[in-house]
């Protein structure tokens, strides 16, 4: 921001959620509050890291905004594969990875 960036979009991965959302344990929402405290400015937290809401927020953000996306590891596309509830291995669809 000090170097005239219009906005900043932050993303991260936390923990090992194996492509399954575990918001109580691995959400980045508390990190947004900490960033707000450290930066002294509001941080827009988005409850996902992909999809139309994220694309719209990041496509033309307000000047000076900081956006934090939810944990990337909540999606199997980040991990490559995971086991489903039945214990069967589920792989990320290559088309979804390429589109990311």
Automatic annotation (TrEMBL):
Enzyme's top EC category: transferase
Organism superkingdom: Eukaryota
Keywords: ATP-binding, Glycolysis, Kinase, Magnesium, Metal-binding, Nucleotide-binding, Transferase
Pathway, per record: Carbohydrate degradation; glycolysis; pyruvate from D-glyceraldehyde 3-phosphate: step 2/5
InterPro entries: Phosphoglycerate_kinase, Phosphoglycerate_kinase_N, Phosphoglycerate_kinase_sf
Cofactor(s) needed: Mg(2+)
Region Disordered, annotated ranges: 80-100
Compositionally biased region (Basic and acidic residues): 90-100
Any one Gene Ontology molecular-function term assigned to this protein's record: metal ion binding
Residues making up the signal peptide according to the UniProt record: none
E.C. code: 2.7.2.3
Any one GO BP annotation for this protein: glycolytic process
Family, as annotated: Belongs to the phosphoglycerate kinase family.
Stored PANTHER family: PHOSPHOGLYCERATE KINASE (PTHR11406:SF0)
Protein name: phosphoglycerate kinase
Natural source organism: Rattus norvegicus (Rat)
